[in-house]
Amino acid sequence: QVQLVESGGGSVQAGGSMRLSCAASGHIFSSYTMTWFRQAAGKEREFVASIRWSTASTDYADSVKGRFTISRDSGKNTVYLQMNSLKPEDTAVYYCAAAWSTNLRSGRRGEEYNDWGQGTQVTVSS
């Protein structure tokens, strides 16, 4: 099991930038996939971006493609989500999740992930 702790959330005006971090304790195996999800108030949780630890290959939701960048630092066991050109509709609690890559089918459904962080609030004002 992997323990995940998110940080870096806060408030920003539309058009601004923010970087989220997800620090993992315990061993991150090269066969893991690390993923960011978000959940806005009154809405369902949605996939944001994922990265395969071994290859650093990435996947993005269409709504954030070109604005958000996911990356990882193997030495620090940390995954980052750089968010640029933020919009009010990006306001949500952002969660980091981890799973064995071989256990994933789409990699975009929260039900596929066993390990979750506590979440960090991101608020974008217009």
Describe the structure.
This protein has about 130 residues and is mainly β. The protein is about 0% helix and about 50% strand. It is built from no helices and eleven strands. It has strands spanning about 5, 10-15, 20-25, 30-40, 45-50, 60, 70-75, 80-85, 90-100, 115, 120-125. Strands 2, 4, 5, 6, 9, 10 and 11 form a seven-stranded mixed sheet that branches. Strand 4 (about 30-40) and strand 5 (about 45-50) form a beta hairpin. The radius of gyration is 13 Å and the shape is globular. The model has no long low-confidence stretch (mean pLDDT about 95).
Morphology:
globular
Strand fraction equals over 45%
Query: H/E order of the elements?
Result: EEEEEEEEEEE
Number of helices: 0
Quaternary: single chain
Number of strands: 11
Keywords:
126 residues, mainly beta, 11 strands, seven-stranded mixed beta sheet, four-stranded antiparallel beta sheet
Q: What is this structure, in a nutshell?
A:
The protein is mainly β and 126 residues long. It has no helices and 11 strands.
How would the blueprint of this fold be written?
Elements: E1 3-7, E2 10-13, E3 18-25, E4 32-39, E5 46-52, E6 58-60, E7 68-73, E8 78-83, E9 92-100, E10 115-116, E11 120-125
Parallel strand pairs: 2-11
Antiparallel strand pairs: 1-3, 3-8, 4-5, 4-9, 5-6, 7-8, 9-10, 9-11
